[in-house]
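Dear support,

I submitted the protein below through the web form. The confirmation email said the job was done, but the results page showed an empty box. After a refresh the structure appeared. I'm attaching both so you can tell me whether what I see now is the final result or a partial one.
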Amino acid sequence: MKRILTYGTYDLLHWGHIRLLKRAKEMGDYLIVALSTDEFNAIKGKKAYHPYEERKMMLEAIRYVDLVIPENTWEQKKDDIQNYFADALVMGDDWEGKFDDLKEYCEIVYLPRTDGISTTKIKHDLESTTE
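What the results page shows now:
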């Protein structure tokens, strides 16, 4: 069984997220999503619209996702790879090169982002329609 691991906040879930999860799942048999907790988002200076438990519930409802675990720190990736026996870490290409130091533990894959959609774009579009 090939296990794939990915990370994200997955706030304001959109078709770019779904496409990334689908492509990640196609790379293996079992997809683990490490979901940023509200506390970790605060450390990163981010605020999610949906709280962690709601974002977790939405991810668990997606057929490509087999397991959702909490992401509490930047440094936990090596332990997650080892503890969940991940064969590959899959991230969007906006993170290109940032996790290459983990290549000794598993394959690292950076997938192209979906053009024309992002949580940042959705937030910007919503703000500009209310002005």
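Response: this is the final, complete result; the empty box was a page-load delay. The longest helix spans residues 15-26.
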